Amino acid sequence: QVQLVESGGGLVQPGGSLRLSCAASGSIFKINAMGWYRQAPGKDRDLVAIITSGTATNYADSVKGRFTISRDNAKNTVYLQMNRLKPEDTAVYYCNAEIITTHYDGMSLWGKGTLVTVSS
Fold first, then answer.
1. 3-state SS string over 28-86?
2. Cα 14 versus chain centre, distance
3. What is the pLDDT of residue 54?
4. Separation of alpha carbons 47 and 53, rounded Å
């Protein structure tokens, strides 16, 4: 009934920029916090950034000053603007959302992920 779909990943050179999008669709009453996580090859899935329904944000130390998370509540979409990308940013990026359905059930959902590769 509800799903998240990420887009915007791809190959980019070091120092370049990329913007990821994650759109939620289905029987949605309200979306609370939304966030981005990433998993590099052979490593654990780590938090990148979170934005609350009140627009408060939190970032991993490794991306502070380079990445910006934002959301468009009218479109049920969260974005991740990534600037000054580094090879170590290479990972599969996953969207997460805390959703209240139209039946007032709460759930935490994950997208399938989008691959970001930073390489020259």
1. EEEEEEEEEEEECCCCCEEEEEEECCCCCEEECCCCCCCEEEEEEHHHCEEEEEECCCC
2. 20
3. 85
4. 18
